[in-house]
């Protein structure tokens, strides 16, 4: 740390004497000063040690001056700006992630594809879901999202309107790592989300991926350490490329909050065997008949959740016990087994997202503006790739995936259809939901009760809704994995085709039940073609949520929390 110098008396200071002398030639200097013949003024003589320093300063023996001693408190390395002096190029490129945002505001994915509202009805994602943007926005976006609700403290000191758990901070801020160290992971996690708002000051930054104050990579999240140990990929023993991948895998993975362990973040990796064929029916009591799968597949995760009887939520339209896939980018990348250019199998996240660049002195550094920029591929790549060709390659791959999602018999419209048909079957049997004016909570409770009734209808609906759960899981594993069109397009297509097959069966089953129970319901896709139409059908009032959010931002975040909203 730089020592701050005090203004000190022993430095050059001029002593003016004989002000009344008209020619100044006969200056007499007093004790302790000597005449400088050039300037004709008396200057204080340097004082030999010991110099007496005042309170709060110490003598620096080299300069023989009094200085403020180095702070004994730690430098705040959770604030990335405090790394700028030692690592200017990395810091400056990290700061550029603020530029990675759509020019015309947020990219509202629910408006672009209202079937998402149906798929996630009764869960936070139905309220608000925008396209991801640069790391600089992570903290802002989780606070402003309608998903995190409007947790306000009432007159009795109790929090009302809380929607999320504390672990939702874990992929947004290095302050989470600090709190894990300060108070313990369980004590942090076993709380509601807004409990820690006053601690969250910094967006994703250096301390998330590096040892405090130096360039060594680290895992700051103990849940990632545990998970990578479990599959035999211990961080400390990993290659440089894999170490870099694992820093990203602290967040860009599938995870859930483990209710049996203080709601800590947990990865469902218990049965994953990298590059080994596994029949999950042997490992756990997996009901699927999928046969053998290699590595980190969505089937392995489903087996894990099924075995534990785990659900993220009950869909408020259909009553299905759902899972939400997070964003398994690490898994999908690691699961690539073939590539036209086999060298690419050795690439890690940083090869493509943090390419090497040069600073003004010609030294190489990793560009920390984490994104994919076709125009800034290193020269070693440009011999094969130019930006235009890369753009068309990626667009073509995305188009194939979008065709499976939105084309004739696409998975997204089929999901929408099956959820509403399931609701109509319930209605025909007098089990009331949102369509009968029930609240989200009442609808869920009615369906959960009816599924446990042990009667014929419960058996039929369990069969139908298990298909919905599985199909949506495979679809979500492919579509929530951002960049899968680049990372592993073959896996995306496999999962979407699988979801499609399950949904064809599910819709046939639903149609038969609608007939059996004399339902008058007619499915018309035009009733569900906008977010404005579907959100009310999912029990949501957008304006109300937005107003409550604005109140929360103004009266809690901006008055009590340290975050600087972008
Ligand atoms: C999301 C994780 C992540 C964050 C955040 C991050 N780094 Fe890095 N950093 C890496 C990775 C990964 C590498 C190694 C890249 C490689 O060699 O492929 C790296 C490399 C470095 C290096 C070694 C030299 C170089 O450029 O390759 C320095 C120094 C460094 N980072 C500083 C910083 C500073 C300063 C910050 C904050 C302003 C920061 N990093 C934020 C992941 C991160
Ligand atoms: C601490 C959690 C965390 C870590 C570590 C992390 N990310 Fe992210 N990343 C996020 C979040 C959260 C977002 C979305 C931010 C938003 O939309 O506000 C994101 C967004 C992104 C995006 C989209 C950026 C854009 O401009 O659209 C890319 C690409 C990305 N991350 C790659 C990486 C890579 C590569 C690594 C490892 C070097 C990494 N991330 C490490 C949490 C993390
Ligand atoms: C072979 C190069 C390559 C590797 C390796 C790679 N990515 Fe990507 N990634 C891409 C490309 C290309 C895109 C898509 C960019 C586009 O379509 O504009 C992308 C997209 C993404 C996105 C979505 C960004 C957005 O704008 O929506 C995220 C997040 C992401 N990658 C994270 C990762 C993580 C984490 C890893 C490591 C586990 C990784 N990537 C490894 C090339 C790569
Ligand atoms: C010797 C030629 C060659 C070099 C050098 C090369 N690539 Fe590739 N790359 C390919 C080929 C071939 C494909 C596959 C194209 C296809 O599927 O049609 C590919 C595909 C890709 C893709 C699309 C995603 C994927 O993995 O399929 C990305 C991103 C990519 N390369 C990035 C890079 C980067 C970054 C470098 C430099 C570090 C690089 N490439 C160097 C030949 C090369």
TrEMBL record:
SUPFAM superfamilies according to UniProt: Multiheme cytochromes (SSF48695)
Annotated InterPro entries: Cyt_c552, Multihaem_cyt_sf
Enzyme class: oxidoreductase
Entry EC number(s): 1.7.2.2
GO molecular function terms listed in the Swiss-Prot or TrEMBL record: heme binding; metal ion binding; nitrite reductase (cytochrome, ammonia-forming) activity
Subcellular location: Cell envelope
Domain of life (superkingdom): Bacteria
Catalytic activity entry: 6 Fe(III)-[cytochrome c] + NH4(+) + 2 H2O = 6 Fe(II)-[cytochrome c] + nitrite + 8 H(+)
One BP term from GO: anaerobic electron transport chain
GO CC terms of this entry: outer membrane-bounded periplasmic space
Keyword line: Calcium, Heme, Iron, Metal-binding, Oxidoreductase, Signal
Family statement: Belongs to the cytochrome c-552 family.
Protein name, per record: nitrite reductase (cytochrome; ammonia-forming)
Organism from which the protein derives: Paraferrimonas haliotis
């Amino acid at each position: 740390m730089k020592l701050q110098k005090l203004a000190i008396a022993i430095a050059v200071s001029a002593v003016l004497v004989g002000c009344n002398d008209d020619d100044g030639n006969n200056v007499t200097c007093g004790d302790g000063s000597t005449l400088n013949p050039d300037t004709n003024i008396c200057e204080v003589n340097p004082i030999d040690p010991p110099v007496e320093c005042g309170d709060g300063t110490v003598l620096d023996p080299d300069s023989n001056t009094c200085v403020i001693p180095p702070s004994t408190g730690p430098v705040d390395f959770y604030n990335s700006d405090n790394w700028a002096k030692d690592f200017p190029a990395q810091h400056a490129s990290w700061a550029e992630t603020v530029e990675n945002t759509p020019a015309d505001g947020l990219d509202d994915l629910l408006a672009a594809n209202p079937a998402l509202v149906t798929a996630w009805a009764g869960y936070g994602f139905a309220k608000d879901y925008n396209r991801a943007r640069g790391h600089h926005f992570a903290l802002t976006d989780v606070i402003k999202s309608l998903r995190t609700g409007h947790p306000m403290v009432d007159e009795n000191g109790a929090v009302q309107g809380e929607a999320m758990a504390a672990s939702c901070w874990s992929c947004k801020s290095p302050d989470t790592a600090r709190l894990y160290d300060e108070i313990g992971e369980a004590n942090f996690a076993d709380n509601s989300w807004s409990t820690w708002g006053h601690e969250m000051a910094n967006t994703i930054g250096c301390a998330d991926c590096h040892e405090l104050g130096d360039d060594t990579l680290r895992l700051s999240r103990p849940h990632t350490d545990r998970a990578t140990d479990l599959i035999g990929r211990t961080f400390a023993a990993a290659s440089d490329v894999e170490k870099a991948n694992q820093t990203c895998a602290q967040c860009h993975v599938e995870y859930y909050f483990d209710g049996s362990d203080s709601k800590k973040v947990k990865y469902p990796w218990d049965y994953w065997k990298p590059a080994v064929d596994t029949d999950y029916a042997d490992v756990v009591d997996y009901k699927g008949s999928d046969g053998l799968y290699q590595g980190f597949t969505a089937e392995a995760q489903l087996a894990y959740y099924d075995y534990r009887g785990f659900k993220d939520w009950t869909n408020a339209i259909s009553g299905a016990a759902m899972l939400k896939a997070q964003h398994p980018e690490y898994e999908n990348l690691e699961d690539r087994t073939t590539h036209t250019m086999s060298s690419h199998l050795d690439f890690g996240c940083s090869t493509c997202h943090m390419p090497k660049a040069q600073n003004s002195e010609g030294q190489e550094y990793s560009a920390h503006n984490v994104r994919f920029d076709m125009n800034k591929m290193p020269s070693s790549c440009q011999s094969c790739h130019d930006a235009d060709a890369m753009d068309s390659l990626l667009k073509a791959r995305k188009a194939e995936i979008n065709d499976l999602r939105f084309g004739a018999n696409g998975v997204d419209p089929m999901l929408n259809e099956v959820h509403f048909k399931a609701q109509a079957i319930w209605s025909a049997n007098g089990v009331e939901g949102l369509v009968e004016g029930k609240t989200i909570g009442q609808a869920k409770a009615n369906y959960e009760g009816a599924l446990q009734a042990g009667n014929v209808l419960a058996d039929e609906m369990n069969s139908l809704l298990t298909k919905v759960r599985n199909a949506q899981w495979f679809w979500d594993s492919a579509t929530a994995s951002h960049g899968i069109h680049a990372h592993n397009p073959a896996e995306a297509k496999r999962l979407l085709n699988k979801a499609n097959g399950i949904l064809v069966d599910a819709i046939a089953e639903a149609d038969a039940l609608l007939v059996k129970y004399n339902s008058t319901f007619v499915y018309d896709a035009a009733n569900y073609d906008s977010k404005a139409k579907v959100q009310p059908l999912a029990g949501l009032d957008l304006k109300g949520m937005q107003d409550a959010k604005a109140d929360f931002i103004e009266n809690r975040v901006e008055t009590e929390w340290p975050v600087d909203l972008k």
